[in-house]
Amino acid sequence: xxxxxxxxxxxxxxxxxxxxxxxxxxxxxxxxxxxxxxxxxxxxxxxxxxxxxxxxxxxxxxxxxxxxxxxxxxxxxxxxxxxxxxxxxxxxxxxxxxxxxxxxxxxxxxxxxxxxxxxxxxxxxxxxxxxxxxxxxxxxxxxxxxxxxxxxxxxxxxxxxxxxxxxxxxxxxxxxxxxxxxxxxxxxxxxxxxxxxxxxxxxxxxxxxxxxxxxxxxxxxxxxxxxxxxxxxxxxxxxxxxxxxxxxxxxxxxxxxxxxxxxxxxxxxxxxxxxxxxxxxxxxxxxxxxxxxxxxxxxxxxxxxxxxxxxxxxxxxxxxxxxxxxxxxxxxxxxxxxxxxxxxxxxxxxxxxxxxxxxxxxxxxxxxxxxxxxxxxxxxxxxxxxxxxxxxxxxxxxxxxxxxxxxxxxxxx
Length: 413
Description:
PGBDSf; Lytic murein transglycosylase; two-stranded antiparallel ribbon; alpha+beta; 8 strands; 5-stranded antiparallel β-sheet
C-alpha cells in the first residue's frame, strides 16, 4: 500500500504538481498540534507540577506521527476502522497457533528455572503464581526480546491530539511528563510501543507511576532493563487488580449443547457446582476440585461454538484487566499451565471465514437496533456481542453458535 501511495504521488507531481495540498494539509496538522500542546497540554501539565524545562525537553521537538493507527485527522468524517490491527481481537484460531503457543511456553519453562527464587519471593508477597507472571512477560515483550522503538512523547502527543480516544491519551501524556519530572526516567529513556506502552511489561504511563516497583533493591523502577523489576511489577499489577491467592485462572471444559452459550460473561457467575449439575465436565477427565465447586465460576466461550469452552474463575478477569481481551487472558492462563507442565488445548479452534472489524460493527448496529446489548458497536466480538448473537440465533430458531459469521451478517442485512 505504501508503494502504491508513493507511486500515485509521483504521478500527480509529474502531471502538474498536485501533491502540494497533501503537504499543506500535513503542515496544517503540525501547526494545530503545536497549538494543542502549548494551549491545552502545557497549562494542565503546569498545574500538575510539571516544569517548563521538562515540558520543552519532552515535547518541544515532537511532531505528530501520522503513520500511527487509529487516528482521526481534522476535517475527516468519523468512520469505523475496517481492519483490526490488534491481534487480541482477530481470529481465535490464528491467535492460538500451536507453534507460537508452544514456543512461548517452552521459553517460559527455561526461565522458570532461571528466575525460580525471584518468582517464589514475588509469589509469597503478592499471591500471584510465577507461571502467570512469566506468561505475561512472554506475551508482552517476548521475555524482553521485543524492540520498543517509539518515542513515547511522539506517540502519546499524537494520540492525545488525533486519536479516537483523545481523553485517555491526554491523561497518559500528562502521566508520562510526570514520570520525567519525578526523575524516574529521562526523556531519552521514554521508549514505547506504537500504543504508548512502556518497557518489558508494556505499562501505560499512568500504570507505571501507580504499579511499577523496584524488584532488585537498587532504588530504581527499571522495567526496561531489570528482570526482577519487570516480574515484580507485573505481579504487583495483578495483586492490586484483585488476584485471589490460591485459585487458578480456570479449566478447559466440555460444554454440552444443553448449556447455552448465552450464559457467558463475568456478570453471569454462579457456583461451579451448578455447571457440573448441568453436565459440564473437565476435558482432563478429572473432577473439579472440591473447593472450587463451591466457588464462583464463569462460562467462557471466546470463539463461541467454534472453539474450546472453559469455566473461568474470577482470576481470569483479573488477568483481563491487563489487556481487555478474552483471548489475551486465555492465552496467559493457558501458557502458564503449559509452563507448569500441562499440554495443548483438548478442543480445536475451528477457522471461521472472518468478518472485518467494520463488518462486525455493522452487525452490532443491527443487533443493537433490535434491542440487544452488544456492549457497543466497536467491531470487536466481546462477550456481550457473542451472547447477543446467541440470543438472536435462539429466538430465530437457529443453532446458537454465539459468533459473528458471514452467514449471520448476510441474514441481518
